[in-house]
Design goal:
CATH class of one domain: Alpha Beta
Distance between the termini: 119 Å
Number of strands: 6
Radius of gyration: 32 Å
Shape: elongated
Structural class: alpha+beta
Largest sheet: 6 strands, mixed
Strand content: 15-25%
Helix content: 25-40%
Order of helices and strands: HHEEEHEEHEH
CATH topology of one domain: Outer membrane lipoprotein wza fold like
Length: about 190
């Protein structure tokens, strides 16, 4: 009796798996049943990261798209930021976005003389721009921003004179002053 019930159950499953696809069983349910039976290996779906870049080779100085069709580009950032390097950003990214992605400004950043260097000259023949970001940080005014292009390099310079620089130079110079004083005193 027990064997008869098992055989009936297996026969019912066998008939069901043959008939259900004909009547419109969802593909996901069919795949789940097939993977449980063992005819098809289960593969984990890749995790989608929109700013990871494409899976195809890309020229550094051009726009490209991600899997969702967003237009992306490479931008380089150097200088007084938390994380320097090359970042993938959306086509219309501005300085605020770039600085946020790079982890923010360093404590000695000079916002008045931010340099943007283009790989290729623009239509006016310019290849470098100086941008004043201080007005953005004080008033939120984005009018001084320029449109970024693929492979632009943004350089955030260090302030001319800072307490850290004064301390660094004085620690280098002070031994020489001390030795000069000792030599001069002995003469």
């Amino acid at each position: 009796m027990y064997k008869k019930n098992i055989l009936t159950f297996l026969l019912a499953i066998s008939i069901w798996t043959q008939l259900v696809p004909c009547f419109g069983m969802p593909v996901s349910a069919r795949a789940e049943i097939t993977s449980m039976v063992g005819n098809e290996p289960t593969v984990a779906a890749p995790i989608y990261n929109p700013l990871a870049g494409p899976s195809y080779p890309v020229a550094q100085n051009s726009y490209f798209t991600d899997d969702s069709g967003n237009i992306l580009m490479f931008v380089n950032i150097l200088g007084q930021v938390s994380r320097q390097g090359q970042f993938i950003v959306r086509e219309n990214a501005d300085f605020a976005t770039i600085l946020a992605i790079s982890g923010g400004l360093g404590k000695d950043a000079d916002l008045k003389k931010v340099l943007v260097v283009r790989q290729e000259p623009d239509d006016n023949g310019k290849q470098a721009y100086v941008v004043n970001l201080k007005t953005f940080y004080k008033k939120g005014d984005r009018s001084g921003f320029i449109a970024l292009k693929p492979n632009d390099t943004i350089v955030i310079p260090e302030k001319g004179i800072s307490l850290a620089k004064i301390s660094q130079y004085s620690s280098i110079i002070s031994p020489f002053i001390y030795w000069y004083y000792i030599i001069d005193k002995q003469q």
